[in-house]
Design a protein that fits this description.
Two copies of one chain form a homodimer.
Chain A: E1 3-9, H1 14-26, H2 43-51, H3 54-61, E2 65-70, H4 72-75, H5 82-102, E3 107-112, H6 125-133, E4 139-142, H7 162-171, E5 175-177, H8 189-206, H9 210-213, E6 219-221, H10 232-241, H11 247-250, E7 255-258, H12 264-273, E8 279-280, E9 292-293, E10 298-299, H13 303-309, H14 315-329, H15 331-339
Parallel strand pairs in A: 1-2, 2-3, 3-4, 4-5, 5-6, 6-7, 7-8
Antiparallel strand pairs in A: 9-10
Helix pairs in contact in A: 2-5, 6-7, 14-15
């Protein structure tokens, strides 16, 4: 079985974006404020938006199941107030839930949180709990920079975030640390901000003792961990200089890297330096990079090919990356699969 | 001949830091303002600070010459006003100049600029010209984020920076795009901010047509290009999606990556995906990571070992990385060497 731990609903029917545009317009012109009930998307529309897109490619590529969350760049937590984000997160999470009900063999939900810059993360807990207990979601996405590229929140090691971590631990769900759209012109969202956020998240953990306080907390760092595996020697050296334990003991019981790296040499490096137990298969399909690589004739984001072709991995390693690591890192997914005899 | 294009004067005599502390204190208490003449460092002190440190390690490692600039983390352009930075840059550049005169076979100077957040970069030109024409410096370091982690400047592609680029082109010197200390608690300077800045710089160039306006401008992106080579497929795919030419045509006549990557697999990946003509040897010694790698028994930052050992490189490739690329990217260095019969 092949589990992709990183997919977003990037292909939702157009009504969703139109509703969001009205919500954003209402921030300056309250007369335009849409009601949640104004958004009407039928099951057939949802089904088609998935069957023609993600599911089609999953079947072409042999991916069985995707952990599926709202479109990352559309979270845009910097827009409006907590109430803006709360309404928007509620809508987006419900759509992912409906997808997971329409295609229960192929999608498991992960939640976006109604974060808002400067607002206590505790306010996200009701939505988090609703997604886990009512929707059966198996993870959340946590945005370490809800300001959208202005970096005004405390580091992930700060007690600011602890109420969220307590809930993650209680419900045994991991957080993928995933930024959203950059509204800072310095940072291209897909080519700079996401990768910077990944590197930053890892270093915030490295300099702290967060996982002493939360030994069972699990973070998934997407996009192959940003710059981290490429600079693994630098990070090992910095940890040593900062009198931290070796990274394996200090962080690798709690941090996992996905395989959203869109060329063979990158995947090979990941597999060479990061223990295979800490690598989770993912493609972020349909996402940041949608074209065909002229050097291979295959889609850039068909990451399964790189893993299949990597000389660094053996059969047992691939099995871990494709399935068993995900079942360990996402125990609620494992239980849901087991309940369906998988 | 082996040229290290990335060294900072991290071992300057203590008087320098003490002078800077007084300068910083004077920002709130002008009575403490030190005069430039208050800083007294003898040639013997300079000589010893180099001979016992950088030069010793260069000789141990077989590095002939280092392009040497003021300590990157001490540039701290976010502190004080333009005048603060101007005085400080003047002092730091002069020390590097004196080092280059004391050890003319082993050090060539590169300037820090007196940048200050929100101040027109044009104000940096007098110091830039002084360093080139009076000191014989062969490059500058350009900080794309003088705010120190708040990212308040326009992207490198913005006309804001063009006056600097005109001077770089006129004097035929490259800019190493190098951030300084982060004063944003989100970003560890060495483990996040520098690498993020590298990735960000590359993407700012990718999304623009900067090098159409400046076809002979050359940027060196340090620390192996941050996350860029590891995600080379992502960047190739994003360029394609943004209707930009292939990266080789779009950016690689102008952008070069150094080899400050502190483990073998990272250097191997760099050499595998980046054309050898775009790689410059560097170690940033004595810099970010000073320890011994327990996995190899050698210093993390002894990057020559990784290049010598890389199965991806042949003799001709190593010669380019160690010497001839640097002589091409830093033509004023080449001329200075040729004048000395090297």
């Amino acid at each position: 079985m092949i589990i992709d731990c990183h997919g977003h609903y990037t292909t939702a029917p157009r009504q969703l974006e139109q509703w969001r545009d009205r919500q954003i317009a209402s921030l300056t012109d309250p007369a335009q404020a849409p009601a949640v009930a104004d958004l009407k998307i039928t099951d057939d529309e949802l089904r088609q938006s998935i069957a023609d897109n993600q599911l089609k490619k999953m079947q072409e590529r042999g991916i069985d199941l995707t952990i599926f969350s709202p479109r990352a760049s559309f979270m845009a937590h910097h827009i409006g107030t907590f109430e803006t984000s709360a309404t928007w997160a509620g809508i987006c999470n419900e759509l992912c839930y409906r997808v997971s009900r329409l295609f229960p063999d192929h999608f498991a939900g992960a939640a976006m949180l109604p974060q808002s810059p400067g607002v206590d993360p505790r306010t996200c807990i009701p939505e988090l709990e609703r997604c886990v207990t009512e929707y059966g979601f198996v993870a959340v996405n946590l945005n370490l920079d809800p300001s959208g590229g202005h970096w005004t929140s405390p580091p992930l090691s700060d007690r600011h975030w602890y109420p969220i971590y307590e809930k993650l631990v209680e419900h045994r769900i991991p957080a993928m640390i995933h930024a959203s759209t950059s509204c800072n012109p310095c940072f291209h969202t897909l080519g700079a901000h996401y990768l910077n956020a990944d590197t930053t998240a890892f270093m915030q953990c490295l300099t702290s003792d967060l996982f002493k306080d939360f030994p069972t907390l699990r973070f998934v760092i997407p996009h192959g961990g940003g710059a981290v595996p490429f600079h693994w020697g630098r990070f090992r050296g910095l940890a040593q200089q900062l009198d931290k334990p070796p990274l394996r003991d200090h962080l690798l019981n709690n941090i996992f890297f996905d395989t959203c790296i869109y060329h063979q040499p990158g995947i090979d490096l990941l597999a060479r330096v990061i223990p295979v137990d800490n690598i989770l298969f993912a493609s972020e399909m349909i996402g940041a990079v949608r074209g065909i690589d002229p050097e291979t004739g295959h889609p850039f984001d068909d990451t399964r090919r790189y893993i299949d072709a990597s000389p660094v991995l053996d059969r047992a390693g691939r099995d871990k990356i494709f399935e068993s690591n995900a079942r360990r890192v996402y125990p609620r997914l494992d239980e849901a699969l087991a309940a369906r005899g998988r």
